[in-house]
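SUBJECT: A protein chain and its fold
Encoding: whole-number codes for local backbone shapes
RECORD BEGINS BELOW THIS LINE
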Amino acid sequence: METDKDPIIARASAAGRGGIGIIRISGSEENLQQLLKALFKDRRIEPRHAHLLPVRDAQDNIIDQTIVLYFPGPASYTGETVLEIQAHGGPAVMQMIISRCMELGASMRLRQAQPGEFSRRAFLNGRLDLAQAEAVADLIEASSQAAARAAARSMQGEFSREVLRINGDLLELRAYIEATIDFPEEEVDFIEDGHVNERVEFIAGELEALSKNALRGKVLRDGLTVVLVGAPNVGKSSLMNALAREEVAIVTDIAGTTRDKIDHAVNLDGLTVNLIDTAGVRRTDDKVERIGIERTLQAVESADVVVHLTSADRSDQDNLEETMRFIGPRLRDGVVFLQVKNKMDLSTGTEEIPEDYILISAKTGQGLEDLVGRLKDIAGACDGAQGDFLARTRHLDCIARALDHVNVIRGGVGSRVGLDIAAEELRLAGLALGEIVGQTVADDLLGMIFSKFCIGK
């Protein structure tokens, strides 16, 4: 059975041919000393020095002249003792060296590393927190200079430090409130003298700012995911085509034309948006349409912004209530919900429209600039900031849950909210934030996160 204590080996450089290929091995000092002795006989290996040494096969034939680096734990990437072998980067040479190491390491249970296992061990051994470990993968996958710079900042701990600072504020206030519970006769003075509600408001503001910065970092990494929802035939496909400036989706007058979700990446004034056109949500006995509606709901779960489209040539209220019955339970914490009224070119001008609606006509282009501007504002693209760090959807979820807990007690500690409730909500907020850096996270979530890393990292 595989364990986190087994020594592991993998190619750490990219697959294919290259001038140099790197093989990484991590394990206990005892195991790696044993492997070094078997590979290089009695040659003394100086820690953190480069050694030019041959790797030989079982018949004592040279496989390749290699550069060998030895990093005793815990001062290594994984926190364990690490050995790196740099050889010529041909696939055959790499595999021959790995096979030779596996042969010599069989008695110590040396095995091939799983995806992300080196970084997972770095996390488990306290060399990286979870957000920093994720930033390693993000740096490798960065598709732009801005994303690479932001990932590097996350890897250096800028995002983590901000999370831990706010969590420290939550813990300090919680401790203050719990101390107040121990002295109930002084409760009013404690609340007033400690400016508890002001401190709650301050922490809520910190979380809102962190959420905005994290969304900007998530957009830099993945783009802004915008899902178009609404009843059939309100113009979702027309809006997608208008924003994409091409015929991405089929448009007809027949309700239910779109049976499946359609994904398309567009660039809106420099903002990368992953647009998802979906099947109209409604009750139906059509089996195929029901499958399309379920895929719509799955898309809603991954959205940063949900654009609910209604039509100026029909009543809104029934439409909104019907749509929310379907998508309401699938909306994640923190998602932005926009109300957009389409087909304004058909409006008679007599209906009353709420102020928070964005008015457009996908056919004529009316109001599209307003919609794009709103999306850019949500993504933080309008303030010109480059993003301090990269973030992921799970980070946004954690921040949104923490803010929800703080909002429960906002402005009401000592009046409408009891001290015991306030202390508990602050505790839950701290647990939600702690998930970002791995202070409070389930093993199955760790497995999912690191399984998406490349092998060798």
Q: What stands out?
A: The chain has 15 helices and twelve strands.
